[in-house]
Amino acid sequence: MLSNRTDPPPPDNPHAGGAIPKVVPPLPTPNPRARSLPARTAFGWLRAGWDDLRADPAPSLAYGGGVFVLSVAVVWLLLGLGLDYALFPALAGFMVVGPLVANGLYEKSRRLEQGQRTTLVRMIFMWPRSGHQALFMGVLLLGLFLLWMRAAVLIYALFFGISPFPGIEDIVPMLLLTPTGWALLLVGGAVGALFAAFAFAISVFGVPMLLQEKTDALSALGISMAMVWNNMVVMLVWGAIVFALFAASVLTAFAGLIVVFPVLGHATWHAYRAIRADDRQAGEAERMFIRPA
């Protein structure tokens, strides 16, 4: 016997007729290295560096005095060996190795954070948590410095050929008063800026990271570059401050480095701590360096 019961109609198929289902976009993932720090934060780092210098000035000023003596010795050596042509590239190359030379200043700032004092001997002979990876970082930066020196010589030869270097007395008028000199300044400045920017990005936080954390040099380089890239505005301001103060120190025959270098070294540590801070520390770091407008 046939049943009179009828089955209910199937439910409507939402994909019938070729309809494309709605796709919900993924939620944005917060970038742990982007702090959204305003540009004025860089001046807060500079103030913090000055405060660290004042907190215990003797070891910092002695450290800066050592950098001053080393700078004068390098210039004297280059001139004495007749390597006048390497003088300007060497000055620019200081920006490449500077973060590495400042390691002892980072150590002093780190100890001040912990309420401890330090000595010049401890600053000079400090040993980073990453151990020999810091030495590997030094080799990389030294290699970058030598590569820049070679590039500078090739750029000079590109514009002036193999003619002998005219000497310091004649090179400045030649650079400033001749079209060839202008072209050399333009090209050399652009190439030097690329080297300096790359070295700054990989070392400004990479070197302090090797002091504070146990990691490898290549990871520190990559993380440092990511920190700079994700905080571009404030880091551009900080880079401009570093360049301006270093240039002013050169104009004082390097004597300004006695004070400027320690302040910049201490300030770089505070910049690293502000940007590298984890989510729990980020608010405290921002309050430390950002004053109400």
TrEMBL record:
UniProt KW keywords: Membrane, Transmembrane, Transmembrane helix
Residue stretches spanning the membrane: 61-79, 85-106, 134-162, 182-205, 217-238, 244-264
Region (Disordered): 1-34
Pfam family, any one: DUF2189
Taxonomy of the source species: Bacteria, Pseudomonadati, Pseudomonadota, Alphaproteobacteria, Rhodobacterales
Record-given protein name: Putative cytochrome c oxidase, subunit I
